[in-house]
Amino acid sequence: MPKKIAVILLAAGKSTRMKSAVPKVLHTLCGRPMIHYVLDLVKKLKAAKTVVVLGHKHEEVRKELPAGVTVAVQKKLLGTADAVKAGLSRLGPFAGTVLILYGDTPLLTYETTSRLLKYHTENNLDATLLTAESAKPEGYGRILRDSYAGVCGIVEDKDADDAQKDIKEINTGIMCFNKKSLARALRRVKPNNRKKEYYLTDCIGLLYKDEGLVDAIKTKNTDEAMGINSRVELAKAIAHVRQRINERFMKEGVTLIDPASTFISFDAKIGPDTTIYPFTVIETNVTIGARCLVGPFAHLREGVRLQDEVLVGNFVEMARARVGTKTWAKHFCYVGDSQIGERVNIGAGTVTANFDGKNKNQTRIGSDAFIGSDSILVAPLRIGKKATTGAGTVVTRNVSDKTTVVGVPARFLRRG
Ligand code: UD1
Ligand code: MG
Fold first, then answer.
1. Alpha carbons 121 and 82: distance in angstroms, whole number
2. What SS3 state is found at 294?
3. For 139, left (φ over 0), alpha (ψ -120 to 50), or beta?
4. In whole numbers, what is the pLDDT of the chain averaged over residues?
5. Which residues are catalytic?
6. In the chain, what are the domains?
7. What pLDDT is recorded for position 193?
8. What is the pLDDT of residues 392-416, one digit of tens each?
9. Ranges assigned E (strand) in 230-302
10. CA-to-CA distance for 311 and 318, rounded, in angstroms?
11. Nearest atom (ligand 1) to Cα of 11
12. What's the pLDDT score for residue 85?
């Protein structure tokens, strides 16, 4: 990896095509804002300096950035060249290679980016592009090559003529520059295009005309170059990230019966020999132990912690719940804001009534308790160890250890 690199990450755009009040780079993929995937890549690259260029709703986006990231605010969204200019102004005396990343290209891998940087520095180039061959190049800038097949410019989709529109080699947007050459080219970019914007892509043609050294490497994996500009593209990118997450878990020893219908967030932790049945949704901040069975049709929401050998079956929803080893909740139930011991049986249809209209209240269930089918547990509530609730019981008061309660509302039946 070349030592002297600085990253300018562009994330100021208004994202008109998303038709959203939420800034584009904060739309999430598997529970995580898009820009965080790019920031992960930046971290791995160990850049000497990173500047994130923000504009549209910059305060909102800034809150999501890790501490210590330098931000440049692009006052008017005049295009990608103007955004890079804003970024350059915060780079200070840095001299070396400037890598441009886009906040809306979250699938880009470390391997490809470092290959680009290596090629650029080894060949001492003024600018190096990452391009891709795409059967559907619509929307992307097209790579123009001269009669020696050398890169000589980029034409944006909106400005391309019919022949240029047929070009299948696209600009991924990821490029690196020698800093001085970039600054020189930026000064000469004019908004002579249909969008009346200052295009970063024009720097390539300008450098070429100046007899600068411009080249490109191609990624074979077109998907990783995907820019997200619409909800349709967002859905496609989510599918990719989901597949990467699922494959990681399978490699770690988790069985996914049907990866295509399994939705696991980026930060889930799942132990080996756990099996996830189809149509299961696992949201952020969830930990699942080893040898658990989850699903089909299970929904594990934020703050769920399952210890080993827990069974969570059909149509079970859990949120903010800690569940002890060998506890079973096998059929349609809701468990929220709860702490459940070991070897507890949670009968079919059990509901923790955790919300009283104002507050979410806690339910605690001791180890070896037996919660009968269709029990309603009105929180705040504590059910003792080895306690039992009868089928259809509405429990409104604490139940002592080894005690059985039945009825609506629950009344004492026996002890022991
Ligand atoms: C851009 C490229 C196009 C490439 C495509 C790849 C230009 C002119 N075009 O087009 O060649 O094929 O990406 O995905 O560069 N941004 C700013 N400030 C601005 C405008 C944009 O920071 O004033 C940021 C956006 O937030 C985004 C990135 O720059 O992260 C790219 O902008 P976008 O509008 O998505 O450009 P594309 O039309 O996708
Ligand atoms: Mg884009």
1. 25
2. strand
3. left
4. 96
5. 331
6. 5-225 (3.90.550.10), 252-415 (2.160.10.10)
7. 86
8. 999 999 999 999 999 999 999 999 8
9. 255-256, 262-264, 269-270, 275-276, 280-282, 287-288, 293-294, 299-300
10. 12
11. 26
12. 97
* Residue 193: alpha-carbon gap to chain centroid: 34
> Which ligand 1 atom minimizes the distance to the CA of 82?
23
**pLDDT for 67-120, tens place per residue?**
878 999 999 999 999 999 999 999 989 999 999 999 999 999 999 999 999 999
Tokens of 126: 């003024």
Kindly give the distance from the C-alpha atom of residue 266 to the centroid of ligand 1, in angstroms, as a whole number: 26
Cα–Cα distance list, 377 to 143, 365, 396, 413 (Å): 64, 10, 7, 17
The whole-number pLDDT of residue 220 equals 87
- CA 252/CA 5 separation, integer angstroms: 34
Give the residue whose CA is nearest to atom 14 of ligand 1: 227
Residue length of the chain: 416
Collect the ranges in the chain with pLDDT lower than 70.
1-3
Distances (CA, A) of 369 to 65, 128, 387: 45, 65, 5
Q: Is the dihedral of CA 191, 193, 198, 202 positive or negative?
A: negative
